[in-house]
Each structure stands twice: as C-alpha cells, then as structure tokens.
User: Which sequence fits this backbone?
C-alpha cells in the first residue's frame, strides 16, 4: 500500500470528484490510460498523482506494479480564495476560487 497526496490544488472539489470516481477501484495501468486521454481540467494533476503513488509503492519494495489497484481516492475541500469583481454602479461581486486536497492510495489487488 502506498499513498500520494496533493494539497491546495486549484481544482474545485466537485470537478475533482468526477475524475476520482472514474479511476477508483481500477487497475493502475487502466487508470493511467484513462487519465492520459481524458478531456477534463484536472486529469493531468490526477495522472501525476497516480504516477507518484506508483513510484512510492515501488520505493517501498516487495510490490509488483502490474498488480496495483487504485484502492482509495478522497477529495476534500481546501481553503477558498476570495476575490472581488467590479460591477456596475460601484458594486462588487465576490468570486470564490475553491481548492482541493486529493489523497490517492494504491494497493495490491486481492486474488
């Protein structure tokens, strides 16, 4: 089992959970191929995170990379950046730029 974390990434949790649900419980090779050709904003960040988790598993040793499965993916909301946009007649609207904390865990598949 190996874990990789990505904190404070500028991707809304709602959009990140869509990608997380696509790769959850998949073999690592299939998940990497899906992320490589996925047309979503955070697919590249998830791809890098998954490759990092696989590298962490290899570094621990005694793990066959071909048997690895994405066992757990969690997306939590991080801090929100608050910005202001000028509007008509001297008013202003608040813009919320949300961030995410993503945790990805890989483990060997159970036979």
Assistant:
């Amino acid at each position: 089992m190996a874990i990789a974390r990505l904190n404070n990434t500028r991707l809304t949790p709602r959009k990140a959970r869509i990608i997380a649900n696509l790769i959850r419980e998949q073999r690592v090779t299939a998940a990497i191929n899906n992320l490589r050709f996925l047309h979503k904003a955070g697919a590249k960040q998830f791809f890098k995170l998954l490759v990092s988790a696989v590298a962490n598993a290899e570094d621990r040793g005694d793990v066959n990379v071909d048997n690895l499965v994405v066992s757990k993916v969690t997306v939590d909301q991080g801090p929100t950046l608050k910005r202001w946009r000028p509007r008509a007649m001297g008013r202003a609207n608040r813009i919320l730029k949300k961030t995410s904390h993503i945790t990805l865990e890989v483990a060997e598949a159970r036979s």
User: Anything to note?
Assistant: The mean pLDDT is 94.
